Protein 1
Amino acid sequence: MTGFGRSAGALSQRYFVAVTTKSVNHRFLEVSVRMPEFFWELEPAVRAIAAETFSRGKLDISIRVQRTQQPEYNVRINTQIANVVVPQLRSMSEELGLGSTFAGSDLMRVPDLLQVEPIETEITDEERDALARLVREALAQMIAMRTREGESLHADITARLKTIRDLQQRLGAYRDEIRSELLSAYQQRVQEIGAQAGVQVPEERIAQEVVLMVERGDIAEELTRLTHHIQQLQQAIDGREAAGKKLDFLSQEMLREINTMGSKSRSATIRTLVVELKTEVERIREQVQNVE
């Protein structure tokens, strides 16, 4: 499911932070965190908060930090560079008759001679707690957006389940009629084969074979399992727990039963209903990819 959230606030007198979060569809939970290098120690905590809140989706969490108080700096002269460069500059200066005196501005032009690094102090517990609060606020906004999308998905899937139930009932109504058609067709076919082979097949034997063939072509078991899957799917979307993976599995099982019914039947009516059923279940399966 897609969503976006944002929060901002001061962690302390030293830092002001802006947190942005966004999510897109994904079968599993994948969290990407971007933050400054001096905040890297907080990345595991941010990932843990995301894992507590979500079970599926690709989440991007961006944390931008602005310093509101200048840190102390460590100034260091790279003596290795100075020991190599300065004598060479003196030698060149004497050869060119420029003298051997250097101004500070001349030495500052030497790359990497002067190294200035901020002294990063440890992040305090208060700053950790403040960042966690901001991350949760941004995720809460994203959850609200995902909830609105979930309500739309719930309405769509519920409507499609109603259509599937109607189609299933129509299949059940045709079942007895199709069994009678199959019985008549198989009896005629067995008699034709016997006549072509010049064999007189006993009526009892014909009846036994025809009954077995009709039973193999009956769709009663598939209809029963399809009913069970529909009930489970309805319960899953009405529940409050994460059900995306379960819905995906149930939609696959529904397609399996529908395909079996289609392969068993020679009736054009049933094949037409099977195609309509598959269309509705495929649409549900596409939608449940967006469900956590």
Protein 2
Amino acid sequence: MEKTEKIWQTSQKRFDYGKKTLVMAILNVTPDSFSDGGKFFSMDEALRQAEKMIEEGADILDIGGESTRPNSARVSEEEEIRRTSPVIEAIRQRFDIAVSIDTSKAKVAENAVNSGAEIINDVSGLRFDEEIGKVAAKHRTGLVLMHLRGTFETMHEKQESADICAEVSDGFCWSIEKARSFGITDETIALDIGIGFSKTFEQNLEILANLQKICAEFSSFPVLVGVSRKSFIGKILDNAPTEKRLSGTLAANAVSVWNGANIIRVHDVRENIEILKTVEAIKRHSV
């Protein structure tokens, strides 16, 4: 199956996600993230992990300084900047890699971009701090808009929904229009379906099973899926702990890419790139 050019524009790069699925590698410089909290909290550890992920083939490094796991507490802007900006600057000095800042605070995003980040990954889709839209427009960064419901404190509360896919669609439409109101252009926007955020176990599965419909509706935008090591996979695998969820992650990502995902956000780069090569090789022969 021949792919046409599809461009996601950041402040520094043009990613053709029509040619290949992009891999966004997770690098949390936090003491308490659900899977890798504390592992890469020092500068040396963060740089070693960054180098490993780059060597394994990551397209983007997504740097996070505030955990969004269930029951996590907010950290101050100053602390989040202290954790992330020096790491971003050091990575950009050493490696030729696109860097994303995973934050929902405009001040943190501004400092990250000034340190070398070219993408802002906002889990709130401009709901928590819409000033992020001004930062993205000013610097012409890439902008990931994720779907969720509620506040930072309530975003993991499970809510019933008559049609969760329709809710995701409505949420995307709201975030896109909000971004456009700041002068952000469509080619800089990517959409994250928000697996694990304000969704029940069944709703997560329903979204992934019907991802093709969402991708078709928003075909002008790259769609990002972040399932890596998440709790719904643990539940499927008989309550497996985070370190035992790789096989489930790979399966979910394979299904997601087959159903149209353009970007996958992962902890385990090498293994996911191997499944991407396999899925894409098969997909090229679909009729």
Protein 3
Amino acid sequence: MSILIRKVRLKGELVDVLIKGNRFDSIGTDVDAYADVVIDGTGKALLPSFHNTHTHAAMTLLRGYADDMDLHSWLTENIWPFEAKLSEDDVYWGAKLACLEMIKSGTTFFADMYWHWKGTARAVSEMGLRAALSAAFFDFDDPARAETMKRQVMDLHAASAAFPNRIQFILGPHAIYTVSTESLRWIKEYAARHGLLVHLHLSETMKEVDDCLAKFGKRPVEYLHDIGFLAPNLILAHAIWTTDAEMELLARHGVQVAHCPVSNMKLCSGQFNYAGMKAHGVRVALGTDGPSSNNNLNMIGEMKFASLLAKVTAMDPTLFPAQEVLDAATVVGANMYGLDGGRIASGKLADCILVNLDDVCMVPGHNLVSNLVYSAGRSCVDTTICDGRVLMLGGKVEGEEEILAQVRATVARLTATSEHEDDSCS
């Protein structure tokens, strides 16, 4: 399969771009080549696609379901009870909606932690995206449940071989307050033995830190350090409530962080210290978190909030400038998950977007990157390409109407079941 993009703007020049297989082949002012698909790039700019480094994709099913409350109440009183009713097929349709939303806003990779791993993997496989997928691991200090979770990890790891190599299997211990020390040690050993990444929520709220101090006499990062859990294969979601000493530990062990500014602000989890992370040399990429706590999967909006939050937290308008935040949403996220992409260059993975330069928010066009970060919305994304395949052209994705209809039917059934249960208990 080959794709030729004609007369597209790249770094201020009009070029032709040839994609062969799943990688960029030739980039020049006059590429003379045959291609299976030819795209007219007139009036458009070519950019790397986005990499969403932390989310819970199928929570599209819960978008708008429970809002305007603290994290603990949100999880325990609303989200977890709803999720307990989900089947693999429910998760499949929720994940398909998430994939559709990400394609339409220019994202071609996401890292996920959720229930019913195979449902999400099926959706990603069909929709053509890349993903790093983990099954949520909770044991709540229950040894019997821990053994069940370990068996699930091993079974899903074996099953993951049947899916396309666009899908990475990773480990997903939920958090230090839902996973025992013994299970965390087992996860570290299993990950090391099989060369897997580990994706963990940490220091998301002050309550989590206080509870860790009360239980272990240490802050969360210090606790993980003491049990030998900090390593270059560890990716932390949030990491808001970290001290300088903890950030130094993260940097020393090569731990990376997925920053989710919109979710953090919506749940009032806290203000992420981007300046501190940068000063200590901790690599930070961007994620949206789940579409129930964000409430969308739009990385363009995430970039703007990330930059503005960093600036106002440090009271420094020069912090996290447009190009740096675009890198955090593209190449840094790609590298975090071991992908040879996130840049437009010969030999790199051909994951990219075409942005409409005639979109009202992209005019007059003094600075393309600044416009994308500070003024654009997802409507500016015209074309999305992943793994050398066109997933969206002219703003349209094949099969999107069916996905919307199936999700609406799924949610109607789930909410009708909830109402019936409520009536039967009254």
Protein 4
Amino acid sequence: MQPEAELEVLIRARYPIIYVVSYEEQRVEEGIRAICERRGRTLHTWSITRGIRPPVDRVAGPERPAKLDPELEVLALMKEAPEFTVFLLKDFHPFLKDHRVKRLIRDLSDDLLPRKQTLVLVSPVMELPPEIEKGVTIMNWPLMSAQEIEPLLDQVVASVGERKEVETAMEPVQKELLIKSVQGLTKLEIENVLARSLIEKRKFDLEVVSAEKKQIAAKSGLLEYYPPLNTLSDVGGLELLKEWLDTRKGSLTDKARDFGLPNPKGLLILGVQGCGKSLLAKTIASEWRLPLLRLDVGRIFGSLVGQSEQNMRRAIAIAESLAPCCLWADEIEKAFAGTSGAAGDSGTSARVFATFLTWMQEKTKPVFLVATANDISKLPPEMLRKGRFDEIFFVDLPDKDERADIFAIHLRKRKRDPKNFDLATFAEITKGYSGAEIEQIVVGALYRAFARADEPAKGKRKAKATDVTDAEIRAEIEAVVPLSRMMQEEIAWLRDWAEKRTRPSSDRKGD
């Protein structure tokens, strides 16, 4: 049921006090005003800065005490208002802590019903004291749905008219993608970001929308926004995982829903450190053209009782408001290390984990969770059972062909032509090296070349900084001690565990 229709039912059913939780105060007021016009009711709005609008005509009755506080004054006026009156109080939640306000509201809950009056409180936060919670009905007013955004977008296009300098024509797929990208914004934010896009880019541009969503993530203090900078071509090897992702590329669209597909839940990527798990999380969002939000669990935990659980619920709510999106939980085993309750945090970690686990199982919004982990032994078994993730992939150390591919990627990224280097030999002598170690080998070789070129010439022509040689890359390979050698037993155990319990990310034919 649409929020306006739900609120109309509550008003008609004579619910005396309704608490609407919403950031969109204007949309709520417009909805209530439309209901009052249809039902022949009078609407009065109140805020601490503007007072009551329009003023209430007093009826005969006992005199009220003079010089009441504004919040008490508006509640007292409700007793003098005629039947079929609706009062909308904006940001009234700070006053609910006053014992006098609580008493007046409890009195009103009995007085409003026979007079067919309704008191509506609207606020972006829900703060309800236990003394009055039984007499108040809570209602969430969600942000605009795709069906509501489409006519708003059409209005923006119509307002532009036929200006030649502005391009507003879109294919149906482009329009759907734009509508999905602005979901999670308020009506005012949508209007602003569409106008900014037309002024800045002369068309509807998704990068402008992404910048607006970055602001929302930054304001929360719990999520970090990552711009789409990487693609799957930046990841060497992992063909099986890439194929799996490519198959599900359009799974968050309406076309997929009409086909009968559910929203994908997410992906757990286990593997050896430095083998590209975090890079994969970034590339998924970029390939699927979705915003990427990183869940910073360190910011979730607060010092006050109940604050950590509230922060987790808030982070989830923000991610869902920005859906469709990717939510990245990096090294998730470290985030919930205290879920057994033995960490001395009075069970806070366990409760936060339970909130997150329930959301993973029950979520309906298109939020694709990408979780990465290095140490499988620290992951709670509840997280690994079927239904939490769509698939669990294991990312192993790259084989010979993948190592050659990784060398080529990092040389190309640093403006070197891979054809000028002996990649086959490099791949052969770096068995057991991770992708991160190969990247540092290339970087280290560039440092060697730069330092050599910067030295004074000794009777010979000075080499150029760009002349990094095979010998310098080989020298860096010999200087690096790979993690697979330092932690040989741990990695062997991880490989053995994953062999029969997870899906491989590559076929490893090169070694």
